[in-house]
Amino acid sequence: MELLGAIVAPFLPPLLDGVARKVKALIQNRMGPSIFQTWYDIITLLSMEPTLPTGSLAFRLAPYIALASALCMAFMLPYGSNSIINFGGDLIAFIYVFTLFSAALVFGALSVENSYSHAGANRELTLSLVFKPLFTITIGIFALKTGSLSITQIAHSISPSLSIVGAYLLLLYVAYVEAGFIPYDIAEAETEILEGPLSEYSGRLLGLLKWALQIKRFAMIWLFASFVTLPIAEGVFAFVLQMMVFLLAYLLMVTYESLNARYRLDQAMNQGMKGIVIGAVLTIIAWLGW
Amino acid sequence: MIREFEEKFGPTLEKKVIAKNKVLYTLMVRREDFINMTKYILNRPNTRLFTMVGMDERNTEESFSVTYWFLDWKAQEVIGIRLYVPEEEPSFPSVGAIHKGAIWFEREVQDLLGLEAEGLPDPRRLILPDDWPEGVYPLREDFQYYHSPMGTRNYPYREPKNNSTVHPMGPYHVALDEPAHFRLFVKGEEIVDVDYRGFYSHRGIEKLARGRLNYNQVIFIAERVCGICGFAHSIAYAQAVEEAAKIEIPDRARYIRTILLEIERLHSHLLWIGVAAHLTGFDTGFMRSWLIREKVMELAERLTGNRKTYGLALVGGVRRDLLDYRKSLILETINKLRGEVNELVDMLLATKSFIKRCEGIGVLSKEKAREWDTAGPLARASGIDYDTRRDLPYAAYDELSFNVPVYKEGDVLARALVRIDEVKESISLLEQAVDAIPGGPVMAEFNEIPSWREGISAVEAPRGENTHYVMTGEINRIYRWRVKAPTYNNLQAVSDMLRGYTIGDAPLIVASIDPCYSCTERVQVVDIESGKAKVISFGGMGTCP
Amino acid sequence: MPITKYYPFEPEQAPLEYRGVPEINPHLCVGCGACVNVCPPDALIKIDDYENGTRKIVLDIGRCIRCARCEEVCPTRAIRLTREFEAASNDRICHVEIVELKLAKCRECGKYVDYTERQLQKVLSLIPPGILEFDRIREKLPLCRECKRLLTVVNATKFEEEMRE
C-alpha cells in the first residue's frame, strides 16, 4: 500500500496543479487550460537544454537537491497506515530535508549575478527564518503530546486535547504558507521580481525546480491530511480517507487563493511572528498537560 | 490673472490674443525679466505650467522661439510667454532651475532643437537615442524627416551612492507595458533612489506632421499617439485647430465627442483596476474588471466600427452621426455596467490583502505634486483639485453636471478610489449626454484654414490633461504641433514616489500613475531603405501605450 | 459560466458596423484618385503610365489603418470596408490589390491625358443633356491640356471677331 502510494506521489502533484488552475479559471469565468497542462509544461521543459548564465556548480546542482529533498519529504509520509521510510526520529529528518529544500533554492539563486534572483533569495531566507521555526514548534506540540519522534507513530497516536486542537489550526496555517499559495508566494512572485530565484533557470533545470515545488506543496498538505485521518482509521480505508481529506483541503485552499492578493514580505513576517508566539503559548499548554 | 500680470509687466511685452481667455505675450527686450515673470505666475495659487513649445521660426522670424504656457485653473485663463532665441546665441534662462515641472520640457528642447537652457539641473539627453550623433537636431527645419544619422553609443547613467546596488527595472519587465528603464538604487529591499531613462518609443510624430500631412491626416496620427487615450488626443488636436481657425462646431458634434470621450475614460479606468489587481497577485480582480470592460469595448465597436481608435473626429466636428439606431444600445450597456461596477468595487474593497498592499504606499504629498505639475487622478489623489473638464470646459461639459473626486492621502489606494469614483461619474455623464443630445448637423461648414494662427487646447484624458498646441502653416499643412501627455509630468514624479518603499512595491507604484509611455514619447519609425516614415501604433495594454 | 470562445476553431464574426479590410470593386472604380488624396498612411497610391496609357490604383492593406476616409470620399462607392479582420498571410503580395484602368486619349493630338476613360464617361453622364448640347461639351471635353488651351484661344479669337462684326 505504502509502496504504491510512494510511487504515485511524485507524479500526482502536477496533475493536481492542473486541477487547481482549472478551478481558479472557473471562478474567474473562463475555461482555463486543460488539467494536464502543468504536466505538458514540465515535460517540455525537461526535454530542453538549459542556458547556463554561470559556470557555478551550485547553480547546476540546486534543482537536483531541491527535487531530492522534496521527494524525501514525500516518502517520509504515511500512505495508508505506514510509510516506506520509517524510523524513530524521522521527524527531525523531515524538518532537515524541508529546510534543505529552501537552502538549495537560495544557493542556486545566490550563485548568479542577478539582482532579481538575489531579491528572491533574500525573501526566501527571511520567510524561512520565520516559518521553519513555526513549523517546528507546531510539530513539536504533536510530538510532545504523543511522546514520539516518528511521523507515522505520531499520526497514529494523536488524541484530542486543547493544545492539539490549537496545533491542528497552526498546522493548517503553516501548510498553506509553505505550500506557496497566493498570499504567501512571495519568494517566487512573478510580477514583482520576475520569479525571483527561478528567473535565471531554464530548460531542464527549470522543469526540475517547478516539479520540486509542486511535490513540496503536495507533501505539506498530505502531512496535514495524515494527521487528521490516521488517528481514526486503518489500512486501505485510511488511505482512501487521506485522499479525500487531502483533496478537500486542496480545493478549499485553491479557492481561498483565488480570492486574495499577495502579501508584502514584512506583512507575512508579522503574521508569522504572531504565529510563533501562539505556538509558544500552545507548547506551554501542552507541557502543562492539556 | 491676466489683468494683474499685464498691470505688472505690460509695457515691455507685445500682446496677442488667441481666444477668449488665452493670451500670448512675446518678450521683445529685457530677457532678464523673463524669470521674474515666471516666478510671479507660478507663485500664485492654482497655477501650473501648461506646456512648453520650442519652434524653429528662422524662416519667418529669423530666430528660434521658446514659448511657456501657464494655466490658472481657478480663473480659467491661459498665458503664454514667448522668448526669441537667436541662432548665434542659442540659449535661454532655464525655468527648470526654479520649477521642477519644467525640467523635461527644457531637456526636450535641448535635444530636438539645440537650444540650451542656462542653469538646468539635469542636462542629460532625454529623447534622442543613445547613439544619435551630437549636433544633429531633428526638429530644425533643415533636417529632413527621413534622415537617420549614425553615431556611437554612450549614455551617462547616474551611479549609486553609499553602498546601494542597482536593481534595474526595465527596459523589459513583466510589470511594464512598454519599455522604460527605471534604475532603482536599492539597499536590501528598500529603494533609496531612482534614475529614469525612457523614450524608447519615441516616434518623432511632430516632425512627421510638419513634413507631409494635411490637417485631416494629422488627426489620424494624433489618434494613434496612444492606444488607450487616443481619442482624447485627436479631440485635443481638433480643438486646437478649431481655435486657431475660429471654427464653431455644431452642438450635436460636441455631444457626440463627449459621449465617446466618456466611453474611453470608462474603458481606461477599468483596465487600470485590472492591472493594479494583477500586479499585486489578485488575478480574480483582474479577470472580473476586464470582463466588465469587454462590454464597453463591444459598445465602442458597435458605435464607431472599432474597439479602439474610433476614427470619428475631424477638424470641424465628427465624421458620422452615431446615435441613429444605437442610442438605446448605449443606455442598455450603461444599465448593465452600473450594477456590475458596484459589485466589482465591493469585492475589491473587501479583499483585505489587496487593500493592505495599496494603503500607505507611494505617497506623493500635495507640495511635491504641485512642483512636478502632475495631472489627472494622480494629482487629484494628492489633494489638487484640477480637472480640465470643469476648469477649461470643452465639448459639451459646460452643459453637464458632474463631481470631481479629490482625496488627500496621496497613496495608491487614494488613486484607486479616485479612478473608481470617476467610473461612476462617467456612467452618470453618459446618461446625461445621451438624454440631452440636440439634433442638427455633425460637421461645421468652413472654408480655408488661415495660416500662421495659433491654438492651444487641453482635454481631460483618463490619465490627466492632454495639451496640444498648433500653429497652422501654408498650403493646408501644419507648421508646428506640440503634444503633451499627462504621463510626461507624472513620470517625473515617480522618482519621488519610489524612495523609501520596497522592490515589491515598485511595479505597483509605477503602475499607479497609469503610465502611458506611448503618449509621452510619441514614437515614429523611419525605414531607411524606402526613405518613408511609418508610424507604429503602440497599443496601451498592449497600455498605453 | 465560462465566456471563453474556441476561436479560431469556432468562427468569429465582427459586427455589422466593424471597419475591416477595404476592397475595391473594379467594375465601379473610375480611377479618380480621391481615395489616394485622402489616405493618411499612403496605403492607396496612383501610378500613371503615359506610354502604355494605363492608370493603376494600388491598395496595400498592410499599410491601411482602416480609417474609412477612402470610403467616405469615393464618388462611385467602389471602395468599401468589409467586415474581414483576419489579414495575416505568409507573403506580403497577398495584401496588395491593383485596379488597372485605361487612360483617355486626346481627340486632337492622340496623346494620353491624365484622366481615365471611365472618369470621362462618368462626368458626361452627370452633366444635364441640355448643357451637353448647348456648350458642345462632347467636343471640348476629351482633350489634353495643350489642345484644350488651344481650343479656348481659337474660340475666344473667333468670338471676338464675331463681336467686332
Keyword list:
heterotrimer, A: 290 residues, mainly alpha, 71% helix, globular, B: 545 residues, alpha+beta, five-stranded mixed beta sheet, three-stranded antiparallel beta sheet, disordered C terminus
General description of the model:
The complex is a heterotrimer of chains A (290), B (545) and C (165). By secondary structure, chain A is mainly α. Chain A is 71% helix and 0% strand. In chain A, helix 2 (13-27) crosses helix 11, helix 4 packs parallel to helix 10 (203-229) and helix 6 runs antiparallel to helix 8. The longest helix of chain A has 32 residues, at 115-146. Chain A is globular, with a radius of gyration of 19 Å. Chain B has 545 residues and is of the alpha+beta class. Chain B has 17 helices and 17 strands. In chain B, the strands form six sheets. Chain B has a five-stranded mixed β-sheet, covered by helices on one side. A three-stranded antiparallel β-sheet of chain B has the order 8-9-10, covered by helices on one side. The two termini of chain B are 36 Å apart. Chain C has one domain: 2-Layer Sandwich (Alpha-Beta Plaits), CATH 3.30.70. Chain C has six helices and six strands; from the N terminus they run βαββαβββαααα. Chain C has helices at 34-38, 69-73, 117-126, 129-134, 137-140, 145-164, and strands at 22-24, 44-49, 54-60, 79-81, 96-105, 112-116. The relative contact order of chain C is 0.16. The mean pLDDT of chain C is 89. Classes of the chains: A mainly alpha (290), B alpha+beta (545), C alpha+beta (165). Chain A binds chain B through residues 24, 27-30, 115-116, 119, 122-123, 182-183, 185-186, 189-194, 258-267, and chain B through 165-168, 173-175, 186, 188-189, 277-285, 287-288, 291, 351, 353-354, 356-357, 502-507.
**CATH fold-level topology of chain C:** Alpha-Beta Plaits
**Biggest interface, which chains?**
A-B, 30 and 33 residues
Number of distinct helices of chain A: 12
- The chain-level mean pLDDT of chain A equals 87
Work out the strand percent of chain C. Answer: 15-25%
Query: Would you report the number of β strands of chain C?
Result: 6
Strand content of chain A: under 5%
Mean pLDDT of chain C: 89
In the predicted model, the low-confidence regions of chain C spanning at least 5 consecutive residues are none
User: Radius of gyration of chain C from the CA trace?
Assistant: 22 Å
Total individual domains of chain C:
1
CATH class of chain C: Alpha Beta
Sheet with the most strands, sense and barrel status of chain C: 4 strands, antiparallel
Query: Which of globular, elongated, flat, extended, rod-shaped describes the shape of chain C?
Result: elongated
Kindly state the percentage of residues in helix of chain A: over 70%
Structural classification of chain C = alpha+beta
